[in-house]
Automatic annotation (TrEMBL):
Classification via SMART domains: HTH_MERR
Protein name in UniProt: Heavy metal-responsive transcriptional regulator
Domain HTH merR-type: 1-70
Keyword Transmembrane: no
Organism: Pseudomonas shahriarae
Length: 138
């Protein structure tokens, strides 16, 4: 059994992260000492590493909770997990398209602005942003 500091070090996270994961019901201590200290087992270390890897793959803590629930559900199958993976990939692709559109808009704004010493009232980027705000308010 490990204390919160030890399991945090083994899993490469902070004790505060472990407390947060506990609050979000992603991990639970295996037991507590008579003094109330949380004790964790090797399964907790493995689960924390799973959570961190899933986060690196773009899954939110909510998604991870769902994955962990599926893993423990007898009626769940690999197709259920695959569906979550597909949904996540589609959301990421949608975000990428939105970011590419933003990048193109910024390219256009930057190209329209030569920089220099002009006062900001005449800055094409600021003018374009103000004009888009005025159009949105209509």
């Amino acid at each position: 059994m490990y204390t919160i500091g030890t399991v945090a070090a083994l899993a490469g996270v902070s004790p505060d992260t472990l407390r947060y994961y506990e609050k979000e019901r992603l991990i639970t201590p295996a037991s507590k000492t008579a003094a109330g200290y949380r004790l964790y087992n090797n399964e907790a270390v493995r689960r924390i590493r799973f959570i961190k890897h899933a986060q690196h793959c773009g899954f939110t803590l909510s998604d991870i909770h769902e994955l962990l629930t599926l893993k423990q559900t007898d009626s769940a199958c690999c197709e259920d997990v695959r569906s979550l993976g597909i949904e996540k990939k589609l959301r990421i692709e949608h975000k990428l398209l939105a970011l590419q559109a933003i990048s193109c808009t910024l390219d256009e704004l930057i190209q329209g602005c030569e920089g220099g010493e002009a006062v900001t009232d005449n800055c094409p980027i600021l003018v374009a942003l103000e004009n888009s705000l005025a159009e949105a308010a209509r």
